[in-house]
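Repro:
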Amino acid sequence: MPETSRAMPTTPRPAGLLPAIFVTHRAYLAEGGGGAQWCTREYRRTLQSAGFALEDVVFASRRDLLARLRAKIRPSPEGELHSGAIARAVATRVAEIGARWCFLNNSDAGLLAPRIRALRPELRLVFLSHGVELTDAVNNLRLAPESLPAARRGPGFLSRLLRAEIRQRQALDASVCIAEPDERLEDWLGAPRTLFLPRQVPVDELPHAPLAGRVGCVATLDHGPNRDGLEQLASALTRHSGVTLRLVGGPLSAGRDLARRHPAIDYRGRLDDAALRAEAATWCAFANPIFCAARGASTKVATALGWGLPVFTTPQGARGYRWPAGTLPLAGSAAELAALLAAAATAKDSSDWRARAAAVRATAPTAEESADQLRAFLQSLPS
């Protein structure tokens, strides 16, 4: 087995649990991390609560000279993976533990589905979506084309990606999604069955010490939807004197550029978990400025709600969450979002906004509720 894929050691399996393969890129199993790591942990918790004993097949991207050249000249939708070797590692592990289920975590694992299906036609293949890859490709091409390598901006790559996404769905038994729009996209790409699991919101309250006029945001700053939203919000905030958007994230060059051009932004750089919690404890509210049909769900919304912060966003930014009417309002424009943030940042008493945030958080499913929903869905699949 090449270094790019490995099966994790077998551990004793509790009685009654179903053996299952969990295929994932190594990066998504890292402690901490961003949305991909958060989503991976949530999927694993839900599958384990649903009665599966997960055996990991972990892979990494190739980094040799040939792989780097191919990525620059003619990138593959699968990335630079030993795709055949990973599929064979899955097939071997299936035979060793007698698994009938295989869960493919995120797009790079999902694109292995046709190869795995060819080796193990009897296996139940379920894609654990973090959002349709094509969505990111189109959004970045439209909103931040300069962030993409030249080889990913042309029609050739988009055509290869679309064909690969369709082939993947033809090999699947089902797709599980983290947002309602992705469920519709999975249907459009040909997934035979789809399930939307609303986002969970683990409680992790901060010791709040909000400072007047201060709101915050955490984001990947060269990602098209994030950057576009921050540009719009920062411009709208200039109408609200005394309100500052404390911005956390990278890359540093993008954050510094945003702060240079927008006086409302106070860029704090990249922060470790402890420093981020200390910073966020001083915020009156959390901003998630998304104004386009973005990929997947904004997992930072769950983080902020778990911290106890009022989150102000848009219908696009709240995708994937249960968001009852009468709780936190959703903004229809950058101007509306700026006005909501300004109201929270200048309020003499924040208890009402915090109570509304708690009401949103209270409607999120528990891991056990998500597990029940997932178990019923999987049991309903045709045999």
